[in-house]
Write a structure and sequence with these properties.
The chain has 3 helices and no strands. The chain has 67 residues and is an all-alpha fold. It has one domain. It is globular and about 30 Å long.
């Protein structure tokens, strides 16, 4: 899905899926669902960067949004 060498391509499969879920439910919730592919989520994750993505996962797990 992601370009080789991008931040999202370096994540574990589980972490990437968690971030995609968060992005779909919060940041891109009004984006057309037929256009909201894994690739689009990965581009958003790459634009945020590692520090923000790590904080998003922690906040979502701590808040019970994801397990």
């Amino acid at each position: 899905m992601s370009d080789e060498g991008s931040f999202s391509s370096m994540l574990t499969y589980g972490d990437r899926e968690k971030l995609r879920h968060i992005v779909r439910k919060t940041h891109l919730r009004y984006y057309p669902t037929d256009k909201l592919t894994n690739y689009e989520c990965d581009k958003f994750i790459d634009a945020m960067g590692a520090e923000v993505a790590g904080k998003m996962i922690k906040a979502a797990v701590d808040g019970g949004f994801i397990s």
